[in-house]
Structure formats: C-alpha cells, structure tokens
Amino acid sequence: MMELLGSTFDDSMFVESRDRESVTLKSYNAKVCEPRWFCAEAALDTNDSLEKQKVMKFRGDLAMRKGEHQKAYDSYSACLEWISDNNLNIRRDVLEGMARCCINMGQREKALELVDLLNKEASNTCHLTSLLLLKTSIYHHFGDVEAQISCLQQLCSLLPFNPWHWLDLGKTCLQLLSCNNITESSKDHQSELVKLQQGGDAADLNEDTIWLKACTCFIRSRLLLKILQQQQSSFVLTRTEKAQEETDQALLQLSPTETTIQNLTEVRPIKSS
Question: Please, which domain of life does this record's source organism belong to (predicted)?
C-alpha cells in the first residue's frame, strides 16, 4: 500500500537524546554605576587600562555633546594612550571624534591630518564610507565646494544605490550653480555628456558639466527613491516623499529638456576623481 506523503517518520526521531552534562552557573554581581560616574576623579584611580580608556572616552563623548569641543578633544587624545593595538574600532571612533572637534574649533588642517590617519587604517567599505562622510563634513564646514563634490562623487561610486548620496551631490552642484547664477545652460551638452561618462576632476568642472552633474544626480536620486517607497511606511516613507519633492523642485529649477533627460539616464555612475 502506498504511503501518504509526509505520513512516515524517521526512526531517529524516537531515539533518546544523549544525557547532557549539567552546568552549574556561577553567581554574577552586575556592576552598578552612578550617573556620570566617569566624571569623578576617583574613576581614574585604577591600574586597568581598559577602565581608563572607558573613562576618557565617556568624558570626551559627554563634552562633545555639551559643545565643549576643546575639552572633548583633550579627553579623546588622552583616551588614545589607553587603547590596545588590536582595538581598531574604538581607535577609529576616537580619531573621528577628535576630527569633528577640530572642525567645530575651525582647525581644518589638523582635522585633515586626522583623516589621513584614518585613511591609512581603512580596510573595508564601512571604513571608507565613514571616512568620506567625515571629509565631506570638513569641506562643507569650510566652504570648499569643489572638494566636497569630489568626496560625494566617491561616495556615489562606492554606494551607487544609495539615493541620499546622489541627492547630496545634486544639492552641492546646485549650490555651486546658484553661486554663479546659473540654472540652465543654453549650449549643446553632447560633448559634456561624453566627459561625464569618462569622469573628471572636480577642480576642472565648467558650468555646463556642473549643470549636467546636478541633473544626473537628481534623476538618479528620484529613481532610487521611487524604488525605496515601495518598501517603506510611517515616518521613513514621509522622509522619502519629502526628498522626492526636493528632487522634483530641483529638476524644475534646472529645466532639462526631454532629450537631455533621456541622454542622462544612459550616463554611467560618475567616476571618482
């Protein structure tokens, strides 16, 4: 007689399981800390380097949150002395904190020196993304728009399906155009489209190329945001819809022709300089 599908059982299901050794749990007393315990002078009265690292790191984070950037920088700098060589994540976090302190204190060169240290230790996509975002913050703070465009281009090349990087790059290009009082170019864009496909240095951008880059970024951002909308809801969807409105308004301001839009959709992602 034919057995029904799924009606049979494997013999191993009825075999008694092996006796497991009982493990006796040791008592554990959780450490109870008072609020801002790391601010007390006694917090450093220890020979444990890890404990000292935590104290200085927490002090730096608190000072950073309160806007006391010099105090935060000093705490982060002291924290570096106690970080073990194999604890790269904390080291990168502290160096980035020091760089952001330098940004707020107007110390551009020192911030870029810290970026160079982080760059030497970058070993994966997450490291590169954080590094480029930090460099973008530095150049934005000090008004170096062309260097900011270069960093954003690298972010778009690194993460081509992230609509927010495309949107930021488009806004930055639009900002540069607004400074030159230009929103629409009357020249033939075909030669510039070829240059855009091949990539180029941000420092060599002319007005036509910047206009084309801005249009390309907003078009790509709009397309990627539409894809995201299908999977979102609540406040996340609201943010995406707001970004969509920004892209539509920007494209309305740039006023690309239908032919230009069609050509731009065929342009490959902008290569980093």
Answer: Eukaryota
